[in-house]
Each structure stands twice: as C-alpha cells, then as structure tokens.
Amino acid sequence: MKRIYKHIEEYTDQEIKDILTRQEVEELIYLPLSVGMYHHNWKFAQDICLKSAQHDNPNVRANSVLGLAHIARTKNS
Fold this sequence. Notes:
65% of the residues lie in helices and 0% in strands. By secondary structure, it is mostly helical. Helix 3 (31-38) runs parallel beside helix 5.
C-alpha cells in the first residue's frame, strides 16, 4: 500500500451525512480522522468512529481508531 500524505479536511454536518450515505471507501478512510480532529460534538464524532471501526475495509477501521485517539486527546468534556 502506498502511503498518502494529505491535509485532512474539516467537513460540515451535511458533508458528513453525504459521505455516510455514499459509502465510498476513499471518503470513508478520511472521515473518522476529520471528525476526530475537527467536529465540535465529540459524542457525534465518537459514534462515527465506533461505527466506522466495524467497516469491512481495514484502512477505514485503522483510521477509526486514530479518530478516537484524536477525540481522547483533544476534547476536554
């Protein structure tokens, strides 16, 4: 697997819903990282990461764990 280094975008709630609806792996790979780093509601972000952790794609699952780590490290509530 080739490593790709790119800026993680901050998604709006509507963009998050659209990504979850489309279920495109290329988008789902970055979603847990984005919500983990940027989303204002840590519980919402946590739910997305936990759901993504059950995805068939191992890269989506791995990034879900990283998303949870971002939440644990940055959200103080």
